[in-house]
Amino acid sequence: MLKLIYTTIMLIPTTMLIKPSLLMQTTTSYSFILAFLSLNMLTPKSNMYLTLDHISAPLLTLSYWLLPLTMLASQHSLSKEPLQRQRVFLVTLILLQLFIALTFMANTLTLMYIMFEATLIPTLVIITRWGQQAERLTAGTYFMLYTLTTSMPLLMAILSLNNLLNTPTLFTQMMQPQNQWTGLILWLACLTAFMAKMPIYGLHLWLPKAHVEAPIAGSMVLAAVLLKLGGYGIIRLSQILPTPKTDMFLPFIVLSLWGAALASLTCLQQTDLKSLIAYSSISHMGLVIAALSTQTHWGLAGAMSMMIAHGFTSSMLFCLANTTYERTQTRIMILTRGLHNILPMSTAWWLLACLTNAATPPSMNFTSELLIMSSMFNWCPTSVALLGLLMLITASYTLHMFLSTQMGSFTLNSPVQPTHSREHLLMSLHIMPLVLISLKPELVI
């Protein structure tokens, strides 16, 4: 594990000192080597300071797999930037990856909290310095306010746990507290921070803003990895904190399911493509929160597989939205109609991405939704009404997104470049892991 961390750190001086003509090729190739090295981490490992188990290993590999893909996706926009800004952008991405890796590998609560919060700084820099519109500073402010406000109770809870358990590792079960309010307050303090990161509906306003304003690399990392830190935190804390009654989770389950349905309905009225994909992420993360709140093995398996499947699917959708934006210079869906007439191969990728997003069998997304629905049905049979409504709206907005961008007659008069091999490689590297995991789901479940 330390080998992987040191290798990632050494990518920073490499990026700063390499010849300008070799900058993108070297950093991307180096990142691919890191991605393949991280596949070795899928088996649980442990040492004095860092630990990987069946929960953190798939998420770590996902984050490393996406690092070279973010660099590939950013090549077109970075080529117009001055050299120094290119170097700083790549270093920021690598730093973000380093903090994410250390969060997943952390052995103690304190290290996990420090790294969890450290991811905020590179993300904020990416949104505010390389964002696409004037509102990027507002998006950065929202992101900071939501994350920092909810992180303060988490810090207090971690300090309290350190005092109670004498600096516990992430695998130390806390004793049942004498006062029932202690356990409840600790749970609420920890859940708020992680649910704002996921985000649960009600604490979600920062996410669409951050996604719309962020450059393509920022959107990919936000959707694919940073949202999963919230789910990972909830899973980890449920191993440490005293097991509460399921009644305590009842408001969260109701809010997450109802919020997921509302976020899906919001998708149907979006005109901005990136905003639609961002709201779909809120909807899928609502399902993850509901599954984790049932505190069952099936719920945990469904949440884990949903996080991995959503990581690849949402990242692929953002890449496709970016390829459309680079050619049409607009994200308004009604203005990008009829792309299947001129970019048929791109339409095939859109169809694959939309099918996985709508959880069509035999994709990993379908497996995860089946597990989540089973655990929810066992917990409360009436929840099927909300879940059924959610599936129906998800299929509707996915179909709406596909038809709005691909069908109809092409309206723009400007010439459109054909899709490049780089973009086809990018889509293949998103869809291939999804297919392979579907064949061997025990890697993540």
From TrEMBL:
Which keywords does this Swiss-Prot/TrEMBL entry list?
A: Electron transport, Membrane, Mitochondrion, NAD, Respiratory chain, Translocase, Transmembrane, Transmembrane helix, Transport, Ubiquinone
| Residues covered by the NADH:quinone oxidoreductase/Mrp antiporter transmembrane domain | 106-389
Can you say what this protein is called?
NADH-ubiquinone oxidoreductase chain 4
Q: What membrane topology was assigned to this protein in its record?
A: Multi-pass membrane protein
Q: PANTHER family attached here? A: NADH-UBIQUINONE OXIDOREDUCTASE CHAIN 4
- What is the annotated role of this protein in its UniProt record? Core subunit of the mitochondrial membrane respiratory chain NADH dehydrogenase (Complex I) which catalyzes electron transfer from NADH through the respiratory chain, using ubiquinone as an electron acceptor. Essential for the catalytic activity and assembly of complex I. Core subunit of the mitochondrial membrane respiratory chain NADH dehydrogenase (Complex I) that is believed to belong to the minimal assembly required for catalysis. Complex I functions in the transfer of electrons from NADH to the respiratory chain. The immediate electron acceptor for the enzyme is believed to be ubiquinone.
* Gene name as annotated: ND4
Query: Per the record's keyword annotation, is Chloroplast included, yes or no?
Result: no
Membership in a protein family: Belongs to the complex I subunit 4 family.
User: Which species is this record about?
Assistant: Laticauda semifasciata
* Locations listed in the record: Mitochondrion membrane
- NADH:ubiquinone oxidoreductase chain 4 N-terminal domain residues: 1-103
Top EC class of this enzyme: translocase
User: What molecular function does GO assign, one term?
Assistant: NADH dehydrogenase activity
GO CC terms for this protein?
Answer: mitochondrial membrane
Q: Does the keyword Disulfide bond apply?
A: no
Reaction(s) this enzyme catalyzes, per UniProt: a ubiquinone + NADH + 5 H(+)(in) = a ubiquinol + NAD(+) + 4 H(+)(out)
Q: What is its EC number?
A: 7.1.1.2
Membrane-spanning intervals of the chain: 21-42, 48-67, 88-106, 112-131, 143-165, 185-207, 214-237, 249-268, 275-292, 298-321, 342-364, 384-403
Look up the record and give one Gene Ontology term from the biological process aspect.
ATP synthesis coupled electron transport
